[in-house]
Amino acid sequence: MSTLLYRLGKFAFAHPFRVIGAWVLLLAVIGGSLALNTPRMSSEMRISDVPAQDVIDQLATDLPEAAGGQGAIVFEAPEGRNFYDDQQAAAALAEAAMNVYDNDSVVDPAELAASADPQAAAAQAAEQVQQVQQALQAREAGMELEQPLPLVAGTGPQAQPVPGMVIAPDGSVAMLQFQFTEQTFDLPTGTIDDVLEAAEEPTEAADISVLPGGSLQELPEVVGIGEVIGLGVAAVVLFVTLGSLVAAGLPLLTAIVGVGTGVGGAFALAHFYQLNSISLVLGLMLGLAVGIDYALFIVNRQRHLVMRSGLSAHEAAGRAVGTAGSAVFFAGTTVVIALLALLVIGISLLGSMAVIAAATVAIAVLVALTLLPALLGLVGERIVSSKARERYSVNMADENDHKTARRWAGFVTKNRFVVALGVVAITLVAAIPALDMRLGLPSGENYNEGTVQRESYEATADAFGEGSNGPLLVVLSSTGEAPVDQQAVGAVLQDISGNEDVASAAAAGMSEDGRTVIVSVVPEGGPTDPSTETLVHDLRDASQSYADQYGLDLGITGQTAMGIDIAEKMSDVMPIYLAIVLVLSIIVLTLVFRSILVPLKATAGFLLTILATLGVTTAVFQWGWVNQLFGLDSTGPVLALAPILVTGIAYGLAMDYQVFLVSSMRESWVHGHRGTDSVVDGFSHSSRVVVAAAIIMISVFGGFIFNGDPMIKQLGFALAIAIAIDAFLVRMTLVPALMAMFGDRAWRLPRWLDRLLPDLDVEGDKLLQRLGEKQSQQ
Questions:
Q1: Homologous superfamily, domain 1-43+226-390
Q2: d(Cα 559, Cα 90) in Å, to the nearest integer?
Q3: What CATH code is assigned to 403-454+573-761?
Q4: Per-residue pLDDT tens for 674-709?
Q5: DSSP string for residues in 256-278
Q6: What is the pTM (predicted TM-score) of this model?
Q7: 322 contacts 398 by C-beta, under 8 angstroms
Q8: What are the pLDDT digits (tens) for 465-489?
């Protein structure tokens, strides 16, 4: 492998325009594809094989009109006015609702009910009008309304309730809840904009504010000022590490090309699958982080060879790609394998994320091994200035090299038992909050103040209660071939309404054959409240008794139920995936380091990293500890996808640092250093670039903490914390302490296993040996 990469690096260096031209052409093709037909992104989270999705699939057959996504629009009356007393405003609301229902992609509940049973629908409408009129009369008599009322359009015999539109008890806010004919992502382009414009047109003249619900709102910006600052910090670290603007610019340039190709390619191919916004951001995060780091390792090695060994830039580039490039290839392969292992779980949502992220990392590796040496060919000998060469020859002799790293390694190895116990104690204490971790999907409540998502959520919660932000869609279907018994449906509705966690429950439609009834259930708690999760389980637990007593099957779906099911599914598969990653870690590291103890220590360290990361993430996002430092003003569950995604990504990145750090220790041991000396010597030669790489990754991931989307916030935070813990506590502190404990025994391998294992030559020893023999022959 190292010899092949050496030749590849020299070829790219010698023929830069060919290699650069190929990458430019590829980017042009991707850019042209996006310009001609831009695909859409979605923030919806849906997975198969969970109860909520099973109900959607059932509705798609029994009642297709109700199988689509949910939508909501909040209307705020002008200050000092309310919708009960202002007839003009009330008329505007009714017109807005009718405009929305005129859209072909929106289900009209009145038509749905009338098609199933016209007489029953008319009787129900008349009864509802009468109840509203009685309540309004009581209000005029001085009684306060305790419950929201449906909006009634018209007067006298022509009065009709406006389906889906309710007004808050104080009359200041109204809300229209409706159903699309398809899931939001599958709607024709422009449908949501058309629906919002239809609602805004009649309300604008009445000075009514319109706030779209969560499913109707635009996705937050993918890249903002936080991400730009993160890249700025990475640029500074590159300059300090490499000591040259030219050298520092190369990793940034190659990372951008890698991201443009990987993420752009995923975007261009999104016509064939559902592209979730999290998938795109995940690819962007990883592409930038590993793209910069991998290029840093190779450029740093090339400069090192030029200054220390006096090689030409051409030869140094080839050797850098052959040695550091071999480690880059292995490290990137490890990340890809860890991500693709998510496919074993069998969850399509995770699968698409894993494939996009893995493809982006693979492209980052390819860019580092081809485009980077081509760019180095354009730079030539300028990669190291004459001043840098002079400064190195005067100040960087071996005996004075890496003083800080040697002092730290000396301290750690000297106090290895205390240091090791201290790191283990710190990480385990940090992991304690994870015992209370609750998984879920963020709601509008978790967005920053001042955002449309937060304003819509708070307006709905203040006027109608927290549960109105996440109503449950309950489906009652006949267990036999006959239509449902209306008295049985009424009994079930009464039983559901009696649950202490239910604010209201009302029938919302029926299929034409009368075998399926949909019910809108508004919980007392919000979408992420534990009481709502309890309610969903209570209703599902009662399903069997409803089937036995009333002949009705009960199913629950909707965005809130889907979020609960996704969280439970992720909790179930997390131990399985963690076990897969740990076993994979031991196997892969055994191949690389040809050792038993080193893989076991590395895997145990990674387990400490994950536990501590989940604990800190829980403390900040769920408990609210110091969350204001990260631009947060609310608490909520930990993102359901975070533990499993962070485990896969952090494992791959942790192995990057393990390979670069411990392979240097092994190289020192191979070259004659023994015991603690090999640990200190290897650490001193690799720690500087590992520290720089870790700071760069933390900066890139940390920039996403200030993104507007709470899911992106959590992923950025968790990945930044994982890298900080793993790089500085585990790899830079715990690993040298443990290596010093075991000394030369760390590299022992049973002879039978040594014969079975292939020699991957990650350090490039065989390449250097061949080059040395070739040079001696000359």
A1: Multidrug efflux transporter AcrB transmembrane domain (1.20.1640.10)
A2: 29
A3: 1.20.1640.10
A4: 888 888 988 988 888 889 989 999 998 998 888 878
A5: HHHHHHHHHHHHHTGGGS--BHH
A6: 0.87
A7: no
A8: 999 988 999 999 998 888 888 899 9
